[in-house]
Structure formats: structure tokens, C-alpha cells
């Protein structure tokens, strides 16, 4: 069984839709894909809290809309709930996450390693399993020179933040049933844009759910053709597989 609830569907600096963070239920294991700085407010809006709502977190890359909520999980986990969640992350992001992001906020003389706060499950790009469901990280281009990953979850593709890569989308279309893709409404050198996604044939567009969009989505939709693309909505529960 796979369910999805987006804690947010907004672009990096969205005020309206919160950070693009995805709460998957994988046969009962609750995996949060990316934990940005709005994740806790979003959970609170739903009457939930990270310590009961999350078993593990997967991080795709180091931008605040994807990692900004981790400090609370680390500190609250250690000092309030005595709970360490699993942390799935590409091997080559472990040091950047610790050195350039979390260490300053959470370290003290007794706790100076990511594993003091999380059950770190570093991954390469080989498939791995969570609760009987296969996942794999796929290195994708986002900011030039900065490591970033998309994720395959069973027969679902989740881009996180990625440039438009037609070859990758075509190959993922063959392998997967649904594609969740970031989509900016203006041009961007680091994210797929709606104009780029609309160059894809209709049979591929039909399988794409856009996310990580700008706050003026509704206005854009009223005035522009969105082809066959579907819009992934914040706080809506999707049953993706029985
Ligand atoms: N080279 C870059 C790097 C970052 N950015 C902006 O910063 C945001 C960080 O989160 P994001 O969701 O990846 O979106 C990025 C851009 O808005 C950008 O516009 N150009
Ligand atoms: Zn982002
Ligand atoms: Zn990003």
C-alpha cells in the first residue's frame, strides 16, 4: 500500500503552499521525503506532530525548503521524545548536511555526529527497501555543481528539485506509472518549467503531477493552457497503490 499526503507543494520561497515535502505511507511506514522549514507548521495544521507521524525522512538535497525542519527533529528527538528517526540520504550528502547545515545548531561536546540524532541510512544509487517497497535515489541536475537526487518509489517517480531532462522523463515514463515533477511557472535554469513540461507528448503529460509551484498557480491556470498536466495538491490524501 502506498499513500501520499503533501505537507506542502510550493516553490522554495512560497508563502501560500508551504515547502514541497511529501509524506508517504509505505505499507504503514511513514516516510517524509524532505523536511523543510514549514514541515512542522504543516503537520500542526493537520493536527499531527513529527514524533508520531514520521518513522523516517529521506533528504534529496540541501536547500532550506528540503532540510530546514531537520534541526527540530534532531533536538526534539534527543531532548524531548528520546526518538531517533531513520534518515535516508545519499552518501555524498551526509557530510554536507552535517558540516554545512545541521552541526551549528545541534552539536555540543557530547553529540557531534549526525548519528547522534538520526539512524543514518546512507545510500548510493542502488535500490533499497523500506517495508517491502523498493526505492532508489537517482542523481539529477538541479543547481550546477550541487548534488541533488530524485527518488523512485516502487513504480512512482518523484523529481524533488530538478532541471527539465527530457531523456530522463521519457525513460521514467517507461518505468513508472506516475511522475511527480517540480514545475515553476516562469523560466528557471534550475527547475523544470511549465513551458518545458508542456513540450512532452500528451501521453506523458497525463502521467505527470506538478508540484513545487509558485503562489500564483490559480491565476496562471485561469489564463493559460496547462495541457494534460495534473496538479498535486497540498494536504490531500492520495491512495497511490492498494
Ligand atoms: N542557482 C540558484 C540557486 C538557488 N536559487 C533559488 O533559491 C531557491 C532554493 O530552493 P529551491 O526550491 O531549489 O529554489 C531555489 C531558487 O528559487 C536560484 O534561483 N538559483
Ligand atoms: Zn525546493
Ligand atoms: Zn532546491
Give an overview of the whole structure.
The protein has a single domain, classed as Ribonuclease Z/Hydroxyacylglutathione hydrolase-like (Metallo-beta-lactamase, Chain A). It contains nine helices and 14 strands. It has a seven-stranded mixed β-sheet with strand order 6-5-4-3-2-1-14. Strands 7-8-9-10-11-12-13 form a seven-stranded mixed β-sheet, covered by helices on one side. The protein is globular. The N and C termini lie close together (5 Å). The site of one zinc ion (ZN) has 4 residues, from loops.
Tell me the radius of gyration.
17 Å
Query: Number of helical segments?
Result: 9
> For the terminal residues, how far apart are their CA atoms?
5 Å
Based on the coordinates given, report the CATH architecture.
4-Layer Sandwich
Reading the helices and strands in chain order gives EEEHHEHHEHEEEEEHEHHEHEE
What would the principal axes of the Cα set say about the shape? globular
Residue share in helix: 25-40%
Number of domains: 1
Q: Enumerate the distinct ligands.
A: the ligand Nc1ccn([C@@H]2O[C@@H]3COP(=O)(O)O[C@H]3[C@H]2O)c(=O)n1, zinc ion
Name the CATH superfamily assignment: Ribonuclease Z/Hydroxyacylglutathione hydrolase-like
Order of strands, main sheet, comes to 6-5-4-3-2-1-14
Strand content: 25-35%
Which stretches of 5+ consecutive residues score pLDDT under 50? Answer: none
Structural class: alpha/beta
Q: How many individual β-strands? A: 14
CATH topology: Metallo-beta-lactamase, Chain A
Amino acid at each position: 500500500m502506498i499513500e501520499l499526503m503533501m505537507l506542502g507543494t510550493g516553490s522554495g520561497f512560497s508563502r501560500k503552499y508551504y515547502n514541497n515535502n511529501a509524506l508517504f505511507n509505505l505499507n504503514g511506514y511513514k516516510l517524509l521525503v524532505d523536511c523543510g522549514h514549514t514541515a512542522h507548521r504543516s503537520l500542526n495544521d493537520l493536527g499531527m506532530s513529527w514524533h508520531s507521524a514520521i518513522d523516517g525522512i529521506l533528504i534529496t538535497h540541501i536547500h532550506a525548503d528540503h532540510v530546514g525542519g531537520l534541526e527540530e527533529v534532531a533536538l526534539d528527538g534527543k531532548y524531548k521524545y528520546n526518538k531517533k528517526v531513520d534518515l535516508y540520504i545519499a552518501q555524498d550528502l551526509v557530510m554536507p548536511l552535517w558540516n554545512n547545515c545541521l552541526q551549528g545548531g545541534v552539536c555540543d561536546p557530547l553529540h557531534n555526529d549526525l548519528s547522534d540524532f538520526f539512524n543514518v541510512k546512507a545510500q548510493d544509487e542502488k535500490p533499497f527497501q523500506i517495508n517491502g517497497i523498493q526505492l532508489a535515489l537517482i542523481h539529477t541536475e538541479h543547481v550546477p555543481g550541487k548534488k541533488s537526487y530524485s527518488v523512485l518509489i516502487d513504480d512512482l517517480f518523484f523529481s524533488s528539485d530538478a532541471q527539465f531532462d527530457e531523456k530522463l522523463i521519457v525513460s521514467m515514463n517507461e518505468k513508472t506509472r506516475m511522475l511527480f515533477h517540480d514545475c515553476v511557472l516562469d523560466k528557471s535554469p534550475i527547475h523544470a518549467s511549465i513551458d518545458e513540461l508542456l513540450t512532452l507528448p500528451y501521453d506523458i503529460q497525463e502521467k505527470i503531477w506538478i508540484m513545487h509551484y509558485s503562489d500564483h498557480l490559480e491565476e496562471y491556470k485561469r489564463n493559460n493552457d496547462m495541457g494534460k498536466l495534473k496538479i498535486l495538491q497540498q494536504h490531500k490524501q492520495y491512495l497511490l497503490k492498494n
